[in-house]
Amino acid sequence: MKLTSAGAARTVTGSCHHFEVGSLSALVDCGLFQGGADLDALNHRPFPFEPAALDIVLVTHGHLDHVGRLPLLVKGGYGGSLLATQATIEVAGIILRDSAKLQEEDYKRALRKARRAGRESELRSPLYTAADVEETLKRFRPVELDVKVPLDDKVSATFRPAGHILGSTYIEVTTPDLRVTFSGDLGNRESTIQAPAAKPNACDVLIMESTYADTVHPSRTDTEAHFLAVLERSLKRGGNVMIPTFATERAQQVLYLVDRYMTAGTVPSVPVYLDSPMAARMTRLYQSCAHEFRPEIMEELAAGGDPFAPPTLTFTVTAEESKQINEHTGGAVIIAGSGMMTGGRIQHHLKHNLWREEASLVVVGYQGVGTLGRTLLDGAERVRIFGEEIAVRAKVENIKGFSAHADHDDLMAFLGAAQPRRLYLVHGEPEVMDAFAAKLNADGLRTATPERDVPIEL
What we know:
By secondary structure, the protein is of the alpha/beta class. The protein has helices spanning 37-42, 64-67, 70-75, 86-117, 130-137, 220-236, 250-264, 277-286, 295-302, 319-325, 346-353, 372-377, 408-418, 430-442, and strands at residues 2-7, 16-21, 24-28, 56-58, 82-84, 140-142, 148-150, 156-161, 169-174, 179-182, 205-209, 241-244, 272-275, 313-315, 333-336, 360-363, 382-385, 388-391, 395-398, 422-426, 446-448, 456-457. The protein folds into two domains: 2-215 and 404-457, Ribonuclease Z/Hydroxyacylglutathione hydrolase-like (Metallo-beta-lactamase, Chain A); 220-398, Rossmann fold (3-Layer(aba) Sandwich), CATH 3.40.50.10890. The protein is 33% helix and 20% strand. The mean pLDDT is 93.
């Protein structure tokens, strides 16, 4: 087998792994690079393989950094199927449609500015359009968990629960000579809502994510207690509480806990705004997929309850509804995307609230290098939003335990069960991967970190 990582190689995003076995040419994921201009530029580069020559594409889950370049494959001539679980197909549909919409809106806005400056020729077109996404979504084919799917007459793939987000899987590929496992993104065993990953089978080669290989997440009990304390403290300040979230998993975790605390009377029933059309659609999807969650959530959903709907919840769908939130300054919980604050409606709320001493910003997710979220976490006193300088007077709180990613202990447990003879680390920051690889090599496990677009013989 020959493997070429065309993304998530010595970086966190852009997951894309091309493998060839005999005449079979296959791909695991095709995600968007995220986190600044340099990474965004990689989205516009050609693939190191010919899309039209691919036989099959396997999709581990629906996050944008795993599905965001699928439309480019189709535009590039790929005519085959995209295999994923049904829940992943639903999640990917929501995320890809939103991605195309944002790109088209950003392009129109940039075009107006470029025309005024006479620089239309310098403007870069969107990666893809809504029409490209709809064509891509037609290619999805659902697979069942734990069932071998033949890729050709000699190679098969088995999708197994990864415990990361709704529909997420890792994929075990079996060839005549090798058993190779692609981890996708593995879940945090201490997740508030998601059931843990299934124990993997033994393999020869493991391509494994390493986002939090240097971290041990707080326990679920400690994380929830920390969030409750921060929420109580933030609401006592009297200002708005901004919680930037990813639309998938993180928004639902936050809603679940806010609902629990408000229902119990632990925190006051202030207005709660889910200011993200995509998160709203995703939350409704979560409400219909009880089988993937922890037992207590499954039971509540089965009984007709809604664990993702605090009593004061309002879905704000239109831009006008979103703007009206800015008129509320007396204490509200505002949940909005994007999770790393690189775009989306959260930037408008930051512009209107960061300079207020009574406001709070509660960070509940990973913040990539170069993002506005990382800048705020690093203690910036001023930031630029929509070209305007904004003083940072709001209290910035950081809660790490909400991560949907496996931590060091989760990864070691997965490794222990998989027992690979060779390990390749992907989907992580270089310094984290290098330190983890050095430790594992010292322990006797052959470990490497592939370079982007450089083929490896397995």
